[in-house]
Amino acid sequence: MTGLFILIVYFALFFGAAAAVALIRRSMVSITDFRSLKTVTFGDESAVMPDRFASIISVVVVFLVWGAFTGSKLVPFHVPGPFLGTTAFVYEVEAPDGSQGSATVNIVVHEMGADIEEPAPGTSEGFAQGDSASVAAWRSVLISAQRNDGEGAKIVAVEGKPISPGGTVDVPDGSVTMTSKGSLNFTPDKGLQMEAIWMPPPEAVVARLIEISRNGYQNVGLLEHVGWSLWRVLAGFVLGSLIGIPLGYAMGLSGWARGWFDPIVEFMRPVPPLALIPLVIIWFGIGEQGKIVLLFLAALWVMIIAARAGVSGVNITKVHAAYSLGASKWQMLRHVIVPNSLPEIFTGARVAMGVCWGTVVAAELVAAEKGAGKMIVAASKFQSTDIVIMGIVIIGLIGFGIDILMRKAEEWLVPWKGKS
Amino acid sequence: MAFLSIENLSMRFDLPKGGHVQALQDVSLDIGKGELLSVLGPSGCGKSTLLNILAGFLAQTSGQVTLNGKPVNGPGPERGMVFQKGALFEWMTVRRNVEFGPRMKGVPETERNTVVENLLDTVGLHSFKDKAVYELSGGMQQRVALARCLANDPDVILMDEPLGALDALTREKMQGLVLNLWKKTGKTIILITHSVDEALLLGERLLVMAPRPGRIHREYRLPFAERAAGADLRSVKDDPAFGQTKAEILEMIWEMEEQIMSGAEA
Ligand SMILES: Nc1ncnc2c1ncn2[C@@H]1O[C@H](COP(=O)(O)OP(=O)(O)OP(=O)(O)O)[C@@H](O)[C@H]1O
Ligand SMILES: [Mg+2]
């Protein structure tokens, strides 16, 4: 229910912001880059530039929606939260002899963990006696209101509306359901906000981040958790490249090697690395060795295929040209084949790093002592949603950071990519 | 014995689905040192095949090619090649491309530098020597390819449509450059082209090939290259003899094309 509402709000913001920005832009100077010269832009992919304004608003919106639906103090507006304060409802009760009475139940709805006084019992008419109860927001409370109304008394209506076991009646600030034994279960209005154990507000996550980066989680520092994950990825990726790239070259340069390794590579390529976790655990245990072997395998096939494609992709005229200029086979490899394959290898390396990073987190979820994945799976066992979300954000940011670094390295090391 | 001799050269491609293409049949030709030979012919008559065999990229089915008395069987630095395009190494600068041959041979750097400086001066790319090749225009790239070939000091320069991808104006300038380089260096050059003008202008000797099977149809000795070197190319083209030969060759090629068409229909 809340989820659907969030989705609707989100899309409303998407279109609303687009309209607002378009309106503001129209009133400002017109755009004067080369795109404005094109008459056909819809369908021309090259005319689609990411609107940086939209990106900024998008990130802001995520935080606003997050804050608004979690009652964050950082966000000035919120969707209606759960009811807090005092409320009351009236019930009617019938004695076995048929006489009727009614009484009021006074209720305090308080924040979770707050220390409060029970309210005074409500007023009553006839033989019925008033009752009182207290309940935390988002929880419900069982009120045996008929207990103190004499032997055999049965509640017949709440707030003037008849009720029977299993039935529900809306009352001010909440609802009342009758249990099969005839007691009343009061649930205060929940509003649209989410409870912190499902979705903590942003500041709680930030607070956790600060706390954990200072004190660590389960005696292991945050940097140590993340560092272990990164180290595993790096070790697996480097090993996978060291073996995979020469193998890929061999497959690109020799028919025998191509024929020999093709069945293995083509078979292993579609097996998701995660599916290898059980086997790797059986063979190597849950220690470092197992994880590095797993990441090695995750990187290996990607790098083999990238190197093979890099060699196969060499333009035959370049090979001919180099031979006509007197290059030996070894010089051909070193000065033509290898540099020509670098763009492909970089593309492969980016993919491999992404796969490795995803795989390491998943492997740590299954079994690890330390690591980013280990941290969030341990936190989830204690319902520490704030740590889980913090961990996911960190994992996402690191994955993003790795990709940016790889792209920078690519621009720097293979500037000729896509230029031939 | 001739400098470069081609004896009874035949090339037959067996097609994977059965059948074959006789790309060359019994081609014999002697080329003297320092000759500039241009080759014309309808598409598919085996010009590239002939050049690729000379370069050593293809092995002929029968016949023999000898250069300086040594049989050709494989590529080698004494036969340089200038391709239509795509043969420069994008990962190297202009200078690195040009010095590739000498570097592979192990020529010391200072010596290489002199060669590179000279050649880049000759082709007019001195100020571009540290640029990446993909930053150059198509015409500039072909000049780099030419310089790279010359840097290796080959005995024979083979060119397959070297100017085919250039616009008319750049092409004309490049024709002048090729002529001047030929005059200056005295290299033996074999040039394949689709342009009759170019073949007449640059060919001291001109070969017209015919298809199915690929063979030499007619040979000309022409005075134009000698005259055009260092002179205005257009004035040479205005020569009535130039126009006459051009018309004759065009007629010849048209006839062959027509035969190909009717052969294809039959
Ligand atoms: N690798 C090959 N396999 C099969 N047939 C080939 C192969 N290379 C060339 N041929 C055939 O040999 C014939 C001659 O080809 P070639 O490329 O030498 O022609 P060309 O005269 O250079 O033509 P163009 O002027 O179009 O470049 C053609 O019929 C072609 O189809
Ligand atoms: Mg050709």
From TrEMBL, chain A:
The chain crosses the membrane at residues 52-69, 230-250, 270-286, 293-311, 345-366, 387-406. Residues 226-406 form the ABC transmembrane type-1 domain. CDD domains: TM_PBP2. It is a multi-pass membrane protein. SUPFAM superfamilies: MetI-like (SSF161098). It is found in: Cell membrane. Keywords: Cell membrane, Membrane, Transmembrane, Transmembrane helix, Transport. Gene3D superfamilies: MetI-like (1.10.3720.10). One of its GO terms (cellular component) is plasma membrane. GO terms for biological process: alkanesulfonate transmembrane transport; cellular response to sulfur starvation. Its main location: membrane. Pfam families: BPD_transp_1. Probably part of an ABC transporter complex. Probably responsible for the translocation of the substrate across the membrane. PANTHER family: ALKANE SULFONATE ABC TRANSPORTER-RELATED, MEMBRANE SUBUNIT, TAURINE TRANSPORT SYSTEM PERMEASE PROTEIN TAUC. Belongs to the binding-protein-dependent transport system permease family. This is Taurine transport system permease protein.
Automatic annotation (TrEMBL), chain B:
Residues 4-236 form the ABC transporter domain. The keyword rRNA processing does not apply. The keyword Magnesium does not apply. Keywords: ATP-binding, Cell inner membrane, Cell membrane, Membrane, Nucleotide-binding, Translocase, Transport. Pfam families: ABC_tran. Coiled coil: none annotated. Signal peptide: none annotated. InterPro entries: AAA+_ATPase (IPR003593), ABC_transporter-like_ATP-bd (IPR003439), ABC_transporter-like_CS (IPR017871), ABC_transporter_ATP-bind (IPR050166), P-loop_NTPase (IPR027417). CDD domains: ABC_NrtD_SsuB_transporters. GO terms for molecular function: ATP binding; ATP hydrolysis activity. Belongs to the ABC transporter superfamily. This is Taurine transport system ATP-binding protein. It comes from Poseidonocella pacifica.
